[in-house]
């Protein structure tokens, strides 16, 4: 299984699925729930500067997720998004326990670890980054 083509395919699938999850969450914050409702939720959770935080989070999830899908600026985007999710863990999920059913850190912890895997292993050759570094 330690063949470059298998490793690159696994990174592509992993990166694409993670990116789609972030795009869906950003889309939901901006266009389904709306930024006003998202700001209200952030305010209720005690997130500092809830309106600014809601905009930053929604745009970062939408654009960052898209960049993960195509594999552009991948390690930078994954690192920045890991910090964003770590902040969400601190402000929203930490006091709620472990399990996601209780609003705990289970899901955001999985996201942070997944993003760190991309930071460590990169985007693979099946990405825009991979194409640009081969040239």
TrEMBL record:
InterPro entries linked to this entry: DoxX, DoxX-like_oxidoreductase
Keywords, ordered alphabetically: Cell membrane, Membrane, Transmembrane, Transmembrane helix
Topology class, membrane: Multi-pass membrane protein
Subcellular location: Cell membrane
Cellular component aspect of the GO annotation: plasma membrane
Pfam families hit by this protein: DoxX (PF07681)
Transmembrane segments annotated in the record for this chain: 12-32, 107-128
Main location: membrane
Entry keyword Nucleotide-binding: no
Stated family: Belongs to the DoxX family.
Protein name: DoxX family protein
Organism of derivation: Corynebacterium callunae DSM 20147
Classification of source organism: Bacteria, Bacillati, Actinomycetota, Actinomycetes, Mycobacteriales
